[in-house]
User: Fold this.
Amino acid sequence: MPVTNLRLLILQHLPHEPAGNILTWATINNYNTTTLLVPSHEGDFPPLHSFDLLVILGGTMGAYEEDRYSWMQQEKAFIQQAIDADKWVIGICLGAQLLAAVLGSKIYPHHQKEIGFFPVYKTDAGNQEAALQAIPEAWTVYHWHGDTFDIPAGAQHLLYSQGCNNQAYRKGKCWGFQFHPEVNAGLLNDMILFEGDELQKDRYVQTADEIQSGFGEYNNGVQFHAILDKIVKA
Assistant:
């Protein structure tokens, strides 16, 4: 049975990084969405009774940079409140790192960046996870990150890549994805436009042309929709 009347609260950190395929999924299912651009938001966060699923998007910030970003401590406190209220919580890239930090993990710069289309692989726990049954053993996804995190205590480590071991985890109703399964054409183009200075060719950093070419073969929007369907039914 499909979930009905689901209400999403989306925490966005950069104007050019919206929720992409998550918004498509919400539209297909007639779900209600509210988006908050956190760095420019003033005042309290929405009341906990106003949403069922909290989605925390990416950004160029580090989840450990509270001294640099005055809003970050308040956002982390709100994420903790959502967890305590038994909401579904999905973190993507920076969002996965913020969620991991709230769950007690360390966030830190990785020894290499991972930018472009590279496969992630299921761990043993990932093979047992019902929400991941729709994806292949080697699932090519879009990455754009330079930081990483430790898997939170008590969480299941679900996915890894050759460039970065900790790619996805689950702890109860909390899910973290280091990569960008929400990417669509507009989001990809804007990330290249606004963040393209990071595209210094390396082992796990593709050029803009390679990224654009990789997107031509990318169909993981539908696969991520299947994951989202499973998450909100769990």
